[in-house]
Amino acid sequence: AALREADAVFTAQLATRDREGGDRSARLAELERSLTAAQAAIATLQRESADKDRRVAALEGSLRDAETSIAFLRVANLKLVTLASAGPQPPDARAHVFCDMDRHMWRVVATGLMPVKPGRAFELWYILPDDRKIAAGMLAVDDHGDADQVFTLPPGLDVAVAAVTDEPMGGVQVPTGEIHLAGKMK
Prior knowledge:
Blueprint: H1 2-73, E1 78-85, E2 94-100, E3 105-111, E4 120-127, E5 133-139, E6 147-152, E7 161-168, E8 179-184
Antiparallel strand pairs: 1-2, 1-8, 2-3, 3-6, 4-5, 4-7, 7-8
């Protein structure tokens, strides 16, 4: 009888242990599911945060550009020149050149430009009264045919005409391409 009683107690203890072990396994499985869900939520939040950081950076860049544009328009000695369509460009292609005569800076705002051939890019030129041509730099035009860029004019340079040509990527020291935009500065 004592043996049966000990066997019953032992069997009950085993059953309790098995029940508790099952409960632990269920709790552990639930915790693992919760952890997986939390990790997925964290990953989603990190992606959303990175997206917002990119949008904020883009907006900050747009704000800086707008502030620069406004500052350019506030200068006391501002001259506005329009570069008209030429060569292969459509008639509505143009660029407005805002010339800060005191700081020797030009802000070139172009619109409606058709893309150039592969391997070529737009380059701005200062053309002097004696017909010498000085490379101002590459004009970065976006996929919509627009550009907004600042160029620094060497002091004392008397520019008679400004022109935009298509040149090999990286630019050249002497224009070789077709004229796309041009305008007299005086």
